[in-house]
Structure formats: C-alpha cells, structure tokens
Predict the 3D structure of the following.
Amino acid sequence: ELIEHFSKNTLKGEIVLLIEEKEYPLENVELEELLKILKEKFSLGTKEALKMAAKILKTKKNVLYKQKYQ
C-alpha cells in the first residue's frame, strides 16, 4: 500500500517508516538491493539511504560505507 501511495504522490517533509519483519524482512536483502529500494521508493540520495539502511540492518553507518565503496 505504501509503495503504491508514494509512487503516485510526492513526499513533503520527514516521514517515519515502520517495518514489521514478518512482512518484509529487509535484514535479509543484499545491501545494494536495499539501497536501491530506499533510493527509488523514498527519493533518497546514497548518503541518506545508507543511514536508513544502517538503522534497518542494526549496524553502524561506517560499516556500510566501507562495504559499499570497497
């Protein structure tokens, strides 16, 4: 529902995204795929997508930066 809604409507301001693990376990998605999803669906830049991915994956941002750019 959210993907459909935000693909038709422009975001204004901040949003809070709550994801229940049982429905869509993002922890099991490869980093590149997760970044692609976050960037496309929420119009995020790479830096913002990495920050959000770090929260989703429960890890530090610098770990993901190193993984992405090495």
